[in-house]
Amino acid sequence: MSAVETGSTSTWFQRFLLPGFALKAVIIGGGYATGRELAEYFVPSGPWGGLAAMLLATVIWSVVAALTFALALKLGAYDYRSFFKGLLGPAWVAFEIAYIIFVVLILAVFGAAAGAIGAATFGWPEALGSVLLAVSIVAVTAWGTGAVEQMFKYVSFLLYAVYGLFLVLALASFGGLIGQGFANAPPPSGNWMAGGLTYASYNIVGAVVILPVLRHLRSQREAVVAGLIAGPLSMLPAILFFVAMMAFYPAIGTETLPSDFLLRQMTVPGFHVLFQVMIFAALLESGAGSVHAINERISGAIESRGRPPLTAGARALIGAVILAGCMFVAGEIGLVDLIASGYRFLAWLFLVVFVVPLITIGTWRLLRRPSLAPMETLP
C-alpha cells in the first residue's frame, strides 16, 4: 500500500497532530505522568538547568521524529520490523531485541505506577491497579490501529486540559514558591545536558513504536512537519509539571510520586482524583501503544506470507501474554529503581541500534536517488 493510497482520505489532524499525540502517548507513561522521571533526570539540574535539559530533549525528539517519519514514508514501512529491515538490513534483529527489553521494562514501570496510584488514591491493594491497567490495554489493542488512534486522540485532549488546570491550581496554591524557586536558582550548570540526552535517548524509540499511525501521511514534507511538531507536543505537559515542581525544589526530587505530593499541597480533593484518573489514562495509552506495535509487527510478518491479518482475539491473546510476562516485574524491583537504572541502560541501547544508524544510514538513504521501493515489495 503506498503513501498516497493510505493518506488520500486523511484529515489535517491525522497528518500533522496525530503523530505528535501518538509520540506523546508512548513517551508519557508512568514516570513522566507521575513526575518521577522529571525528578530523576531534570530536578538535579535545578529550575533553569532542568528547563534547558527539557528543551534539549525536545529538539532531539523533533529531529529524530522528522527523520524517522520521512524514512518510513519513503520505505513504505508502517511497523518497526519493516522499518529496520530497510534501515539495518539483516541486522534489524538487533532492534527487536532492544525493543523487547524496552517493553518489559516500561510495562513493569506502568504496572508499578498503576498499583501505586490505586493504593494512594483509593486504598486498593497494589496488584488491583496493575491488573486493571493490563485488562484495559488488552481491550484497546484487540481492536487494532483504528481503536488505538481514537484513544490517542481523546486521551490527549484530556491530558492537556488536566495539565493546564494543574498549573493554574499550582500557581493559585503556591505560585509564590514557584517564583522564588526560579528567582533564587543559578543559571544552568552541571550535568543538565546529560540529563536531557539520556531522557531523549530512551524515549525517542516512540518514533518507531507509532509507525502504524503514519499511514495518513501523503508527502515527505508532511512527514517532516509532523515530526518537528511531535517534539513540542510531547514535552509540553512535562514542562508545565516541572514548573509546578520547582515550588518545592530540591526536596521534591526524593518523592516517589511527585504528582501525589503536589496534589496534597493544593488541597483540592476532586482534582486529586481527576489527576490520578488522567495518569491512569496516560499509562493506558503508553502501554497500548507499545503492545500495539508488537501486534502490528506480527501481523505484518503474517501478511507478508499471504495470510490474513491478526484477528481481534489473536491481538488480545498476544497482549495478555506480553502483559502477564512483564508488568509484575515491578513488584520485585520497584518504580524508583526501574527508572533510575533500567532507563539509562535503554538510552545507550537505543543510541546504538536506532539513533546513530538513523542519522547516518537513514539520512543517506533519504538523500539517495532513486527512491527506495516500499517494504511490501521486499521478500
Number of strands: 0
Mean pLDDT: 88
Number of helices: 16
CATH homologous superfamily heading? Amino acid/polyamine transporter I
Indicate the CATH class: Mainly Alpha
Shape, please?
Answer: globular
Residues in β-strands, percent: under 5%
Order of helices and strands: HHHHHHHHHHHHHHHH
Q: Give the class from helix and strand content and strand pairing.
A: mainly alpha
Low-pLDDT sequence parts: 1-5, 371-379
Let me know the largest β-sheet. Answer: none
Stated plainly, the CATH topology is called Amino acid/polyamine transporter I
Fraction in helix:
over 70%
Number of domains: 1
End-to-end gap: 15 Å
Q: Any guess at the CATH architecture? A: Up-down Bundle
From the alpha-carbon coordinates, what is the Rg to the nearest angstrom? 20 Å
Q: Describe it for me?
A:
The chain is mainly α and 379 residues long. It has one domain (3-366): Amino acid/polyamine transporter I, CATH 1.20.1740. The chain is 78% helix and 0% strand. The protein contains 16 helices and no strands. The two termini are 15 Å apart.
Any key phrases for this structure?
mainly alpha; 0% strand; 16 helices; disordered C terminus; Amino acid/polyamine transporter I; 379 residues; 78% helix; single chain
